[in-house]
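User: Show me sequence and structure for the first protein, then do the same for the second.

Assistant: Starting with the first protein.
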Amino acid sequence: MSQHIQSVRGMNDILPGAAEFWEVFEETVRSWLKSYGYRPIRLPIVEPTPLFKRAIGEVTDIVEKEMYSFIDSLNGEPLTLRPEGTAGCVRALIQHKLAVQQPQRLYYMGQMFRHERPQKGRYRQFNQVGVESFGFAGPDIDAEQILMGARLWDDLGLDGIKLQLNTLGQADERARHRLELIRYFEHDVDLLDEEAKRRLYTNPLRILDSKNPTMQEMIVAAPRLIDYLGSESLAHFEGVQQVLRDAGLPYEINPRLVRGLDYYNLTVFEWVTDRLGAQGTVCAGGRYDGLVEQLGGKPTPACGFAMGVERLLTLIQEAGGEPVLEGIDVYLVHQGEAASRLAPRVAEGLRDQGIDVLFHCGGGSFKSQMKKADASGASFAVIIGDDEANAGEVTLKPLRANGEKQNEQKREQKRVSVDHVADEIMNLFLDWEDA
């Protein structure tokens, strides 16, 4: 016997039921983004490998260990399944000269790929919502994107998500801090773990983000970046905080909140929760004013954030906030030669009027079809036998309204002309709403 082929580890099927919850979530997100003037952009899943090496950096865990990269056997081109969305969005911005036209507020939704050890909230194929703005240099756009997050948590009915905030200053300020950081850690290099030693001369800022408990005392006492910032960087950071204070949004300044790449600057922020174990960050963002120029474009201020869909859906489910899915409007039951010829025309006529119809396929007795109609979640059964078909009528039977089974009086069935069945259904829906 042949072996069953399983899905790739860490790349999961999203089955009916769960997939419908995803769609409701995505509709909420699209509405939220539209309310802030952000417009959709759809990006390729596969990009040239050099894009990520230039954007993310070759001496990073993502590029060194996690990317799904391959050589196109047809033309020898090095390609990579995107591990994140910002690089591709910037590539599209430059390629199509979007920022030349006007400042841009953009968003994308879709799959990302990283070869990590699968665990709760972290998969090898995962989904992100990414939000990017280009052409806005002031602290107001940073603050807007932070306030956007607070509104989304409210829209999704989530609480317990806290805001952490920091500033990375500018490249020259970080360079001075970097030298002092290296000198500081060199004094006690034997106390560093292997990962920290590897990063000491390539990416020392990331050492501050280590969770190793044996290094925490040393990290707490390390030189702070904020002590190396100039007046302009401090003013930008204060501008962000002032908007948040005026909005009454609580936050915590976390000096250990860092990014390891040179193009990041000024504001960085994360929304975190203690309800997801070690994977507590549900949204992370900040400014990256240097990336557009680094990838070959003109200097362009930029700010953005990304959030993990799987982590947010887990929080929604654990909070008992799964969205209520709307059932189908009509289950169409039919039996007999004349009925089977009329039934497809009735179904299409109802759909023309905006009524959702689940058409019974596969034959079977009226009794078995009605069992399926009742189990389908439909509000009505439209029943057609040869008697109805020959009279140009259908039998309309209410099954439930607003998700609840009707009492016997409300479930009374009646014969209705084919020409009037859609009107009858719409009138019953209105009666239920008024009740």
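Switching to the second protein now.
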Amino acid sequence: MDEGRAALVLTGGGARAAYQVGVLLAIRDVWGKRPGNPFPILCGTSAGAVNAVALAVFSANFDEAVRKLAYIWRNFRVDHVYRADTLAIAESVMRWGSAVFLGWLIHQSPRSLLDNSPLGALLESQLDFGAIDRSIAAGHLRAISVTASGYTSGESLAFFQGHEALQPWRRAQRVGVRTQLKVEHLLASSAIPFVFPAVRINREYFGDGSMRQLAPISPAIHLGADRILVIAGGRRSEEARQRTDAYPSPAQVAGHALSSIFLDGLAMDLERLERINATVGVLTAEQRLASGIALKPIETLVIAPSQRLDYLATRHRAALPRALRLALRGVGATRKNGSVLLSYLLFEKAYTRSLMALGYQDAMCRRADVARFLRVDEV
């Protein structure tokens, strides 16, 4: 039986991407000492794009790739990603205050709340982007894609690097563009709106790839995937609607907007794929060929957090640098109902290690499903 090409889709979520690494540690344990790369197709968005490119760079050795990712995420600090010192936070507050009250006079808008130049330096020092082409040439990797959102065009662009047989694509508001991936693609894909600055690539400025990403799974299919493992960065709350008299804090509003960006598109795309699979599944391959139907069933496995990550973040809020903690407290991000925003920005090892532990636990609870997806026979 043809096992088909496996793809790994890593979604966005800022610091929440540590959860993905915990899942990858479990996948590594299930994969064992087998040679080769279990995911020849890698697709990442936002912080998930950083993890995906790291796996691509070290795709010749899956065990080493996961170990390197785990080491970085286990030892993360906020200042590895963005400036959080007192001066940087004070400058940000002054810039935004001036823009609100004196914008008519200074004619200059602030670019972002936070300065993520430390992340650029970290990526430059840790990732050898030239290794991606070498892995493709050696057959360890078929393709890697990084998705970003164009602020001018409004299109979702999947920048991909892969086998020469792969062709660019264009769909409604979705484009696949062949390129040589660089640090700027990762910074663009992970540029959370308002929080981190947009990045100019060629003629357009790009922001977080989760924005307007109507079909997060689509790049994997265009790149030739037959089965797709998705590691989600969160889950929609299943709590019943409750009466509240308190007006939502700025952090609660921002967190709601971020959840809409990072979670809704994936949920809708998975539902759409299930419907297509159900429809196509009633036809044999011969019937689809005779009818001119180009679609094929796509096997999927989704691993998502079993706990609310915003509530987990509140337990570790004290790990934030003091100036940043005070600023976030001012907008309500350190309170339970505003902690979604906190969960995206808390790049501190106390939190990331908890996320990794949860990811590992969730994946191992579905060990049989993971082994089946990887086509691994476990004793």
